[in-house]
Design brief:
5 helices, globular, 5 strands, about 200 residues, about 15% strand, alpha+beta, NADH Oxidase
């Protein structure tokens, strides 16, 4: 074998090894990114409103995970005006269910989280808290829990009921009450995609 042939063989072998190493290192990364993408999008599309629950209590670690997800939401100027009131007292849940016509399912839920905003921190508190609420709902789906958004704001009568039951200060306003528990019955997500609602460049 000539020196030229040997040199060519060494270069070809080096390139082959480098390509194999690149393939080995990039493949797991691609697989991880693909799995992450599928998990995130799948969770979004599987989220549904659950209004019936078993009697199984929600574990403390899952409650913490819900709240951590909620507080990971974006907020204008990073003000984070939100506060969260966790309710797992049976009598309180039943009393609220009796007074809130849109939240009767509280009587079946082992727990609820009231998302509130500090109006002195941000005049757009309800927008930031809504983002936190969506994070919480998606986290519930990911954790095998069922949840549903029931509005308090902007209905003064509902807000007053919630305020009274959880003793909110004047500047802390309730946005929504989210009953949470392990789903009972058959709960399936709705197909909500509608291409007619999509507009490119102009309406």
């Amino acid at each position: 074998m000539t020196k030229k042939s040997l040199s060519f063989l060494l270069v070809a072998t080096t390139l082959t090894i480098a390509a194999a190493q690149t393939s080995c290192t990039s493949q797991p990364r691609q697989d991880t990114e693909s799995l992450k993408r599928e998990a995130v999008l799948g969770n979004i599309h599987q989220r549904k409103s659950v209004r019936d629950y078993t009697t199984q209590p929600v574990e403390d670690e899952k409650t913490t995970a819900l709240l951590e997800a909620a507080m990971a939401a974006p907020s204008g100027k990073d003000t984070r005006p939100w506060h969260f009131v966790v309710i797992n007292d049976r009598a309180r849940l039943d009393s609220m269910a009796a007074e809130l016509g849109n939240a009767k399912m509280l009587a079946k839920a082992p727990m609820a989280i009231v998302i509130c905003g500090d109006s002195t921190v941000s005049s757009y508190w309800y927008l930031d808290c809504s983002l936190a609420g969506e994070n919480l709902l998606l986290a519930a789906e990911a954790l095998g829990l069922g949840a549903v958004w029931t509005a308090a704001f902007p209905y003064e009568d509902r807000m007053e009921v919630v305020r009274r039951h959880i003793n909110l200060p004047e500047n802390i306003l309730p946005l929504c009450v989210i009953p949470i528990g392990y789903p009972a019955g058959d709960n399936r997500p709705k197909e909500k995609f509608n291409a007619e609602r999509i507009h490119w460049n102009i309406f």
